[in-house]
Design brief:
Rossmann fold, 2 domains, 14 strands, 42% helix, alpha/beta, eight-stranded mixed sheet, six-stranded parallel sheet
Length: 383
């Protein structure tokens, strides 16, 4: 395996991973390092909203050398790191450069590397163009519209200049503008984390939803549906776990919980350490996610690996992860009534639940980082 320089957001604390991009960058870097190859794996971590200035400049995580870059007030100012990144590429003698996510720095770097004799690949995390458009339609704010057009331009240009693109589901490949050099490789999970969770007692009617606290994840609709569930199953509980990326939306969820008198039955568990999150996956009976747009959803894969049947929306790449009526139930986005009925069905129908749980365990094995990293390394070789 060649030396690999990964550029993307890496968690400052590996026990506290915030969002799918961080999970993917962290997982891939660690999986590559765990291989028998002796190649060097280095990460240049890009800043994220709300954490423009990292607490530490560098770290060594599981033998991975990580340098945390910063931005000044706006993420676009991370462009100032371009000379430093090019120096690191030269310093690490002809590495494969693996870029993650959509942003001004990623876009500029892809354009520059196209002109240089450097092998590079870009992982497109979700379809930012769609996600930002949904955000504008929900808020009707001009700032959200400006953000949509800005990221649409970045994403379209990046797709043109990237020599090779990785997407996580066939859904994304079909939705993006035509590009001949696209590989479908899913985001991975460490299946061993959930080995003990698979056979736990799940008699408690606990519904778990994991995803950043953002309108795109549809947590407000999950709460609305759960209010209907409790009318027929009063002992049911719901935990929504995720990092807060939208403070206003977090306050909206808290108000909605109070409005439905669910304070003792719904918990918003924010910024949970990894150990606490896996403990929740071991306790929960089912997993629910009413997402508006999802390219893959790592949380869905982790739920499967833990043996949790899933109730989710029939949107984006979710149908490529969850097989309807086999390891979960899929409903149209916004159909609160059917979403509630699906949750209630899996909480009460023991035989169906047992079969779906077994199917979920089998389905989750498809996403283990061991085989996912193998596919990525083969792509590096083809470059």
């Amino acid at each position: 395996m060649p030396n690999v320089l990964i550029i993307g957001s890496f968690p400052e604390n590996p026990t506290l991973v915030k969002g799918g991009v961080q999970a993917s960058v962290y997982g891939l870097a660690r999986a590559l390092r765990m291989r028998n190859d002796t190649a060097k794996v280095k990460v240049l971590s890009l800043p994220v909203p709300g954490a423009l200035r990292p607490k530490v400049p560098s770290a060594n995580v599981y033998g991975i050398e990580v340098t945390y870059l910063r931005a000044w007030r706006f993420l676009a100012t991370s462009l100032l790191h371009l000379p430093f990144i090019l120096h690191q590429i030269k310093k690490n003698y002809r590495p494969v450069v693996h870029i993650h996510g959509t942003g001004a720095l990623q876009c500029a770097l892809l354009a520059v590397l196209r002109l240089l004799p450097v092998k590079s690949v870009w992982t497109l995390h979700g379809i930012t163009e769609k996600e930002t458009l949904h955000r504008y339609r929900d808020t009707k704010k001009w700032s959200c519209l400006a953000r949509h057009w800005f990221y649409k331009a970045l994403e379209r240009f990046s797709l043109k200049v990237a020599p090779h693109v990785i997407v996580d589901t066939p859904y994304v490949r079909e939705e993006i503008p035509h590009n001949n050099n696209v590989s479908v490789i899913p985001q991975g999970i460490f299946g061993t984390e959930f080995t003990t969770a698979k056979d736990n007692d799940r008699s408690e009617p606990l519904v778990l939803s994991v995803g950043v606290i953002s309108p795109r994840k549809g947590h407000h609709l999950t709460i609305e549906a759960f209010a209907e569930v409790r009318k027929k199953l009063p002992q049911a509980k719901l935990v929504i776990a995720g990092a807060v990326t939208d403070t206003a939306y977090y306050k909206r969820l808290k108000a909605l919980i109070i409005q439905h008198a669910l304070s003792e039955h719904v918990e918003l568990a924010v910024n949970l350490p990894r150990a606490e999150l896996t403990a929740l996956l071991a306790r929960a009976r089912i997993f629910a996610l009413h997402s508006q747009e999802e390219s893959q959803g790592i949380a869905l894969c982790e739920a499967l690996a833990a043996g949790l049947p899933v109730v989710a929306t029939k949107t984006g790449g979710i149908p490529f992860i969850i097989t309807d009526c086999k390891d979960g139930l899929l409903v149209p986005y916004g159909d609160i009534r059917r979403f509630a009925a699906s949750i209630l069905f899996l909480l009460t129908e023991k035989e169906v639940y047992r079969k779906m749980s077994a199917n979920a365990k089998a389905a989750g094995s498809r996403f283990d980082w061991k085989q996912v990293s193998e596919a990525v390394v083969k792509l590096y070789g083809r470059l």
